[in-house]
Specification:
The protein has about 550 residues and is α/β, with parallel strands linked by helices. Helix content is about 45%, strand content about 15%. The protein has two domains: about 260 residues; about 280 residues, Carbon-nitrogen hydrolase (Nitrilase/N-carbamoyl-D-aminoacid amidohydrolase). Helix 1 packs parallel to helix 4 and helix 10 runs parallel beside helix 11. The protein is globular, with a radius of gyration of 26 Å.
Length: about 550
């Protein structure tokens, strides 16, 4: 089949459109198994006709498709920051294109066709794993997240995590491409040659076509059938924990950082008191709810803490979790981390945090500091020489610049109930990170977030969909408190109840079951990524060795 160059550009754009139509919150994830096929056709055509194209053609032709996918699914970032939206969309599309270019280059030097496509899968998984673990993290479009609204398809995430879903999607696309490629060979009677010499596929083969078709059918259907079997057979063990979750609906742009803390606390408690009773174990309020300028060195002295203690005093068995912005003044000689900030008028240093505070009838306060920070808002690259970027941190109205982090996923001890793990906003996208709370003893999970920055767009709904995947991976019930939509209760199978509406003050009351069981994924984390990243490194080294050998032979000749 002959393509003109504008056909290749259209195929690239088709990939972007298909992947966008597959994505939450209203997409159909079955399209994920077809989304990369047009892009694979583009790469394959360039591979077969190298003299027609310049170097890095795969990067240039793949970029428009990945840009469209990023644009159509994450455009809503612009509601909070134009610069952040441009960086996220432009750079993430570039990273994806680089992965395809690297695959294309490796394909020239890896002897077997299947091995070269294995390299593509390994490189892509390594890219997603990097996005989960570096300062410029942006795993929002990791392919396994695409099943957030169809969590009943991926109940086996308790064994693999969301990266298992990425493998499922990539292999499905490769098999679908092989099937289409076989049909193209049949219809055009092409003789397809590998550039290194050996013929990869020369004629149409009916047995190969049937085998590929059956492989694709089994690959797509078997995980879904297995998942529904898990879903229907999974039974929660009774261990009731009673929650009241508040959604105060405070405008993050015009109110959150200007309303007096006593007014905010009053609004939270006025909502909560309508549902609190002597059996309530947890009261949950959202991320960044308390904006008094509080210092952790003497936190109990601040009026917000005193008001909260007074508010929950009538319920001595109650544990209250609330988000706040806090600071900590470093003592002279105390170790300074890279996020330490210098006072403008003294030689001292301090840390700023996005914190979750647990209060109850005990004298002590328990603090957890958000540790997966939003790039460009809460963290800037830590690479040497990049400290100057702090001056360009995006100001969303709160604390600007790199925040401090905790090195341990802390679990709260509570009064008369189970241990709970707090995940703050963006942290609920990171499967292995989220699982560490459970590994450290959390029997239920609490997510506090502020999704009001993006408006009533797909952004806050996608964020909510991803929480269902965390429940499945860890088999932990989740109480989710959003400043505004969507607050809810999510059980261990991922089913949600009492979902609140966007931009409506709300309070919900419900019971969730705690769980002590550790899933395979919680125990082993992103083992799939570690294995495939290692394998991808070996394949890349193999390709480099072959490349160097060929260059040496040319020079010798």
């Amino acid at each position: 089949m002959k393509f003109k160059k504008f056909h290749l550009a259209l195929l690239s754009l088709l990939t972007g459109v298909i992947l966008s139509l597959a994505w939450p919150d209203h997409g159909f994830p079955g399209l994920l198994f077809l989304g990369l096929v047009p892009m694979l056709l583009v790469e394959d055509y360039i591979s077969r006709h190298p003299l027609k194209f310049i170097k890095f053609s795969v990067l240039f032709y793949s970029y428009p498709g990945f840009f469209v996918w990023n644009l159509l699914t994450t455009w809503w970032i612009v509601n909070s920051t134009l610069v952040g939206a441009l960086l996220a969309i432009v750079l993430n599309a570039l990273f994806m294109s680089i992965i395809f270019q690297l695959f294309h280059w490796s394909k020239k030097y890896l002897k077997y066709r299947l091995v070269s496509y294995m390299a593509l899968m390994c490189y892509w998984i390594a890219f997603e794993y990097l996005h989960l673990n570096w300062d410029l993290n942006w795993p929002w479009l990791n392919l396994g997240n695409g099943f957030g609204a169809y969590y009943k398809w991926v109940q086996w995430y308790e064994f693999t995590g969301a990266l298992g879903g990425t493998v499922w999607v990539l292999v499905g696309n490769i098999l679908a491409f092989f099937l289409l490629d076989t049909l193209i060979i049949k219809n055009s009677k092409l003789k397809i040659k590998n550039l290194n010499g050996p013929t990869s596929s020369s004629t149409f083969s009916l047995p190969r076509y049937i085998a590929t078709s059956l492989s694709l059918l089994i690959w797509l259907a078997a995980p879904i059938i297995f998942s529904y079997w898990i879903y229907n057979s999974y039974k929660e063990q009774p261990h009731p924990v009673n929650f009241v979750v508040v959604q105060p609906n405070i405008d993050p742009y015009s109110e959150q950082y200007s309303l007096p803390p006593p007014m905010v606390i009053g609004k939270i408690m006025d909502l909560a008191k309508t549902r609190l009773d002597s059996n309530t174990n947890f009261l949950v309020a959202p991320e960044s709810a308390i904006q008094e300028d509080m210092w952790e060195n003497h936190l109990d002295e601040f009026s917000s803490i005193r008001l909260l203690r007074q508010a929950i005093a009538p319920w001595p068995q109650l544990n209250m979790l609330v988000g706040a912005s806090t600071h900590y003044q470093l003592a002279p000689g105390e170790q300074k981390e890279r996020w330490a900030r210098k006072f403008t008028d003294t030689d001292g240093y301090y840390n700023a945090y996005n914190a979750a505070i647990m209060l109850n009838s005990s004298d002590s306060l328990q603090l957890y500091h958000k540790s997966k920070l939003t790039p460009g808002v809460e963290i800037l690259p830590s690479f040497k020489g990049f400290k100057w970027l702090e001056n360009f941190a995006i100001n969303l109205g709160g604390t600007v610049g790199s925040l401090g982090m905790d090195s341990v996923r802390k679990v709260y001890t509570t009064v008369k109930t189970v241990k709970a793990g707090p995940a703050i906003c963006y942290e609920s996208i990171f499967g292995e990170f989220f699982a560490q709370f459970v590994r450290n003893g959390a029997q239920v999970m609490i997510i506090i977030t502020n999704d009001g920055w993006w408006g009533n767009t797909a952004g806050h709904r996608q964020h909510y969909d991803f929480a269902h995947l965390r429940a499945v991976e860890t088999r932990r019930s989740i109480a989710r408190s959003a400043n505004t939509g969507i607050s809810s209760f999510i059980d261990q199978r991922g089913d949600a109840s009492q979902e609140t509406a966007y931009w409506v003050p709300a309070v919900i009351k419900g019971t969730l079951n705690a769980n002590d069981r550790i899933t395979f994924y919680v125990e082993h984390g992103d083992y799939i990524a570690r294995i495939l990243t290692y394998l991808g490194g070996l394949l890349l080294i193999t390709a480099l060795v072959v490349f160097v050998q060929k260059k040496y032979r040319k020079i010798k000749l």
